[in-house]
Amino acid sequence: MPAHAVPARSAPPVMKTRLPTIAIGLAASLACGTPVPAQQPAPAPAPSPAAPPAGTPSPAQTTPLPTTTAPGPGPGTNQAPTPPAPEKALPPATPVPPTAGRPPLVANPGDPSDVDEVTLPAKPTAILAGKATWDQAVPNLKDAIGKVETALAGAGVKANGKPLAVFTRTDDDGFQYEVMVPVETVPNPRPAGLPDDLRFGATPSGKALRFTHKGPYEGIDQTYETVTAYLDAKGIIVQDAFVEEYLTPLTSPADDALEVNIYALPK
User: Please, are residues 254 and 216 in contact by the beta-carbon 8 Å criterion?
Assistant: First the structure.
């Protein structure tokens, strides 16, 4: 790999199709009717069988039905049946704060048709590391971001920025990442109850090239091809860690309203 090439961020075979949708159709047909034959007279009733001799056991007594549970005591005379116990209500889930209104790393918006040279500030952030395959990129990143957001909200730590994903290592099969949610300040001491694998640090900082992707995440490889072509044409050597900043929430790979800032940090 040339020193200035983009890490293997793009296009393993599994990224060509993500979460296909399924459609099911139903068909119905009409059946033709046939004439109804004339009604036949009802046959004469069969004679009643002779009554069995006295003392003969009934069929239920001869072959009783098996009992699976012992009968419980029924309500006494003038006693109303006991009402069923109400179902136990589940505790409400911890709401995840919306990201709308939180500032991005760079205030001015990017242009999808252009490349911006920006300076990223070092912001305090909560960090959760993980790994995933490319076909599970959106569900995995979405779950990781939700885990951080929920943990911060439960601990009373205020989030103060758009969620980020730093791709620390990539190959054809998948990637390793660090999900980040910027916060106002790093809490000291550490609040009780936070997941053990959640830590605090700072967001990537310094000079960066910003590329903006708008549209489904399943088409983000085309934006990375633009990144690769631009870096190759300019001969720019970048760090092996691209940063994605999610201006709108990750919902599904096919979300047309998705907006993502991609930052490449030159060496």
Answer: yes
